[in-house]
C-alpha cells in the first residue's frame, strides 16, 4: 500500500470514527444485530488511525487495561479445565472478549466532538424507546407487537439504560443554556415516566433514584444539595403512590421474599436457587472453579432445579458466575478490574460523575444479573465506560502538549 493511499485511508477512518461511535451508541439500545455489525466496523476503523494505535501503547500501562486483559486471559485459560463442550467454552470466551475492546474504544473517543455525538445518539435511541413505550401503553400505536416495557430490549437492560439516559440529559441540562435546557429536562421527565409508571424492573427504580441523587450532588454542591435531594426522594415516593405498576412490582418482590420457603419457584425464588447452586459449585472447586462454561454444563447434568429445566447459562449474578467458573482467582481479577475503574473514574477531570453513573449501577446490577457476560448490557457498559475514561487520557495529553 502506497504512502498516499495509507494517508487517505487513515484520514477517512479518522473522519468516520465519531459517526461510527455514535451509531454504536444508537444501535446498542435498539438492535442486537445492528450493534454487532456497527461495533465491529467501529473497532476496525479506530485501529486504522495511526494516532489511535499510538495511544494504545500508553493505555496498555493503565491498571484497568491490564485487569481487562488478565480477566479475559483467565477466561481463556479456564477453557482447558472445563468439562463443558468446546462450543459452550467458545461461547463464554466470545462473551468475555468484549473486555479487549475497552482500550480500543477509549482511543477512539479522543476528542470532545466524538463524545458529544455518542451521547446524543444514545439519547435519541432512548427517546425513541421511551416514546414507543408510552405510545404502546396508551394504545397510540395499535399495530406494534411489543410489550410497553420491552420495546427493543428486555426490562432489565432497558431500565439500566433509561436511568443513565436521564443522567446524561440532566448533565447536559446543567451545562446548557437557553432553549436547550428545558428540552433536556423534558427528556428526564419522559425517561422517569417510562421507568416508574411503565417499566417492570425493580433494579431500574433504585438505579434511577440513585442517578438522580448523583446528578443533584453534581448540580448543587455543598449545603445547597439538601433541598434538591429531598425533592428527588419526594418525587420517588409520589411516583410509588401514583404508579400501579411500581406498586405491583415492589409488593410482588416483598411477597416473594417473605414466602420463599413456601413457594420457591417464583421470579425471586428462582434467582435465590440459582445463587445457591452456584455457591455449591464454588465450594467444590474454590481455587480454580469449573472453567469457562462450567456453570451451564453442570446445570444441565445435575438438573438442580427441576421446575426450571436443564438449560441455564448463568446464575443471574455476575459475581456468582465468576465464583463458580473461575474460583477465587477470577473473583480477585474481577475485583481488580472494577476497583481500577473506580479509581480512574474518581481521577477524571470532567466526566468523573458520569463515569460513576456508568460504573456504580452496573456493580449493583451484577448482584442479580450477569450484566458483563451478556452482549447488550456488557457492550453498553464497555462503550460508555470507554467514553468516560477517554476524558482523562485526552486531558493529560492536552496538558502535556500545552
UniProtKB/TrEMBL annotation:
InterPro entries: O-antigen_ligase-rel_domated, WaaL-like. The keyword rRNA-binding does not apply. It is a multi-pass membrane protein. The chain crosses the membrane at residues 20-51, 63-84, 121-142, 154-174, 186-219, 225-243, 319-342, 348-364, 371-395. The keyword Cell membrane does not apply. Residues 194-334 form the O-antigen ligase-related domain. It is found in: Membrane. Its main location: membrane. This is O-antigen biosynthesis protein. It holds the Pfam family Wzy_C. Signal peptide: none annotated. GO terms for cellular component: membrane. Keywords: Membrane, Transmembrane, Transmembrane helix.
Amino acid at each position: 500500500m502506497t504512502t498516499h493511499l495509507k494517508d487517505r485511508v487513515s484520514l477517512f477512518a479518522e473522519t468516520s470514527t465519531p459517526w461510527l461511535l455514535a451509531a454504536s451508541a444508537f444501535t446498542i439500545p435498539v438492535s442486537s444485530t445492528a450493534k454487532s455489525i456497527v461495533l465491529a466496523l467501529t473497532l476496525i476503523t479506530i485501529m486504522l488511525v495511526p494516532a489511535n494505535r499510538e495511544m494504545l501503547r500508553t493505555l496498555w500501562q493503565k491498571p484497568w487495561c491490564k485487569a481487562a486483559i488478565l480477566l479475559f486471559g483467565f477466561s481463556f485459560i479456564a477453557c482447558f479445565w472445563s468439562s463443558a463442550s468446546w462450543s459452550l467454552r467458545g461461547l463464554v470466551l466470545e462473551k468475555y472478549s468484549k473486555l479487549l475492546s475497552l482500550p480500543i474504544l477509549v482511543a477512539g473517543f479522543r476528542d470532545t466532538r466524538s463524545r458529544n455525538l455518542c451521547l446524543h445518539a444514545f439519547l435519541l435511541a432512548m427517546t425513541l424507546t421511551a416514546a414507543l413505550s408510552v405510545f404502546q401503553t396508551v394504545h397510540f400505536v395499535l399495530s406494534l407487537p411489543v410489550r410497553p416495557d420491552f420495546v427493543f430490549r428486555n426490562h432489565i437492560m432497558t431500565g439500566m439504560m433509561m436511568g443513565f439516559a436521564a443522567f446524561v440529559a440532566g448533565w447536559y441540562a446543567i451545562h446548557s443554556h437557553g432553549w436547550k435546557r428545558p428540552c433536556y429536562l423534558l427528556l428526564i421527565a419522559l425517561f422517569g415516566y417510562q421507568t416508574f409508571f411503565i417499566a417492570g424492573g425493580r433494579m431500574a427504580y433504585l438505579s434511577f433514584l440513585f442517578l438522580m441523587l448523583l446528578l443533584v450532588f453534581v448540580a448543587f454542591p455543598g449545603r445547597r444539595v439538601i433541598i434538591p435531594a429531598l425533592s428527588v426522594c419526594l418525587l420517588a415516593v409520589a411516583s410509588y403512590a401514583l404508579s400501579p405498576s411500581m406498586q405491583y412490582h415492589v409488593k410482588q418482590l416483598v411477597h416473594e421474599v417473605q414466602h420463599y420457603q413456601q413457594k420457591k419457584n417464583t421470579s425471586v425464588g428462582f434467582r435465590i436457587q440459582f445463587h445457591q447452586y452456584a455457591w455449591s459449585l464454588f465450594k467444590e472447586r474454590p481455587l480454580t472453579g469449573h472453567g469457562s462454561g462450567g456453570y451451564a454444563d453442570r446445570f444441565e447434568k445435575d438438573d438442580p432445579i427441576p421446575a426450571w429445566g436443564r438449560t441455564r447459562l448463568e446464575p443471574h449474578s455476575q459475581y456468582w458466575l465468576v465464583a463458580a467458573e473461575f474460583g477465587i482467582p477470577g473473583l480477585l481479577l474481577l475485583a481488580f478490574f472494577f476497583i481500577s475503574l473506580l479509581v480512574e473514574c474518581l481521577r477524571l477531570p470532567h466526566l468523573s460523575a458520569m463515569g460513576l453513573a456508568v460504573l456504580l449501577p452496573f456493580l449493583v446490577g451484577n448482584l442479580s444479573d450477569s450484566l458483563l457476560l451478556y452482549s447488550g448490557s456488557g457492550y453498553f457498559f464497555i462503550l460508555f465506560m470507554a467514553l468516560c475514561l477517554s476524558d482523562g487520557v485526552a486531558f493529560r495529553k492536552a496538558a502535556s502538549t500545552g
